[in-house]
Amino acid sequence: MQKKLLAIALIAAVLSSVGCKNVFRAYRIDVVQGQTITSEQADKIKIGMSPAQVRYVLGSPLITDTLNPTRWDYTYRFLPGTYATEAGLEKVPHRRLSVFFANGVVANIDREGKLPSTTTSLPNSKDGAVRTTESSLESQRPAE
User: CB under 8 Å, gap of 24 or more: what pairs does 89-95 form?
Assistant: First the structure.
């Protein structure tokens, strides 16, 4: 009788631990690295623009090479954590936009990876993610 009870208890313990697989998992944070640059923003950069104009459109560069200050790099990468994965946000591979200057103006623009058409924000809760575009942000701006 004791062996039967022990066997039942062991089976119950194994089955209950299998059912807790999703309960006892580690929380992973979202890893956002770099600046989100959309294809719309990158298309605004034209040959002949000044560094001040580029900085106005894209913001300050993430990387300015000390050995080659005429090259500005904007990089972005997103690794979704627990709630972002559940909200359906996908991993964003490494993307890079490089702007090269010569004689104080843009001489060349180099893109690595497909730039997104919209910016994706992090999930505001575990129930979903908020996706915004520049135009929707403009419509929310208070009237002056």
Answer: 89/120, 89/122, 89/123, 89/129, 92/116, 92/120, 95/34, 95/37
